[in-house]
Design a protein that fits this description.
The chain is mostly helical. The protein has 6 helices and 3 strands. A 3-stranded antiparallel sheet has the order 1-3-2.
Amino acid sequence: MGADVHEGGNGGERRTGPGLTPSGVDREYLSLERELTFLLRRARANQGEMAREVHPDLESAAYGLLVRLDEYDRQRATELAAYIGVGKATMSRQLRALEELGLVAREPDPADGRAWLVHLTDEGRSRVGHVREARRARYVSQLSHWDRREVAELARLLHELNGVMEK
């Protein structure tokens, strides 16, 4: 049996029965949990680094907003709040901070005069684009020994996992 790659602090667990840990958890799901936990911990740390690369005063959580705006252009604050999973007050505070940094701007929504659309400024688009390009270059470098089909398969599986987790 292969060793777990990113094991928790207390070492290995005792295993009983074919494919089960003492608590009755399937080894495959335990391994999946460990690897996802490790990946998410690393992703949070990387998000903070990328946020600081966009602007030294940018909060880590706001980086996801900028990426969303980079990919989808103009969006209402309520759409952004739903996507990120925060309330209106938190979103309003984050958008205000991004406006003060010159990374986003608001404009009236032509479809509803009471609502506002948020979009990246030219400066925001440039900074986010630069950081995203650098991140993709790191992936290319770190995974250069992988076959392109393996990279595509990983992307497909992560897409499928994200779809299942969204439900």
